[in-house]
Amino acid sequence: MNAGMMGVGAALVLASTLAQAAEPKPLPPKASVGEIVKESKAADWRPLDLENTLYMDLPGGRVVIELAPPFAPNHAANIKALAREHYFDGLVILRSQDNFVVQWGDPDEKNPRQAKTAKMKLKAEFTAPLKNDRHFTRLKDVDGYAPQVGHSNGFPVGRDPKKGETWLAHCYAMVGVGRDNEADSGGGTALYVVTGQAPRQLDRNITVVGRVVSGMPLLSSMPRGPAPMGFYDKAEMQVPINAFRVAADVPKEERSNIEVMRTDSATYQKVVEAQRNRGGPWNVFAAGHVDLCNAPIPVREQNGEQSGAQK
Description:
By secondary structure, the protein is of the alpha+beta class. It is 17% helix and 26% strand. The protein is globular.
């Protein structure tokens, strides 16, 4: 073999070696979120507080909302008062805006239904004092919307220690209070749920009161409204609310028995880590990062069947 042929052969071997080195290799397998949830213990879960749980019954099924009074105590109390006077019964889902929110309330802007004992408007509760939050578990990941982020008893939150403030974040399935331009123009008579990419720019601009823990498919699959901002422009498009009740007022046999994973548990930290560094065989790159709104909170029926994580 002459020197020229030897050179060509060496070049081919080198090229083949470089190609093999450049080819991505699957990451080693790691426990998935589903596997971690399956191996969880009873102590990793908590039942919903019936006094701070709402049932919105629609023709297609039930939406279960968990309120977070430490972050918006006046609005949480007012929404329960509205539920107990049956304010929402017979009102409608009136808006579904693509990649944004689904909203419900009174479609009649000129002559809206008036509350009997509850208030129509309240002072805004965009943030709460840090002392209100006794369950904060911080994420180590950097966030562009808050100096610190993490979870408090299952709710995604941001906080600013220098200002002494904390707030609920606008993640998927979070429930907020609709308002006009004036900060204090909402009270809970118009509510919405985030159904698209987390609109975190709304943090600290709207009062957020809780999150949907069951029934999100009923809301996220609503037909998009054709009018501006996704409003339904025909009455027949609106979805009626059959009943809107506080769970504590519902007979035991009619309740939805749901548990939420404790976000201060070691098991939930494993769930977060599984999202932060996803293993193989499908993944070839581990981000080493998880976004606040992409850290799922597992939810399950009390009979042991997992009903899915709310992201």
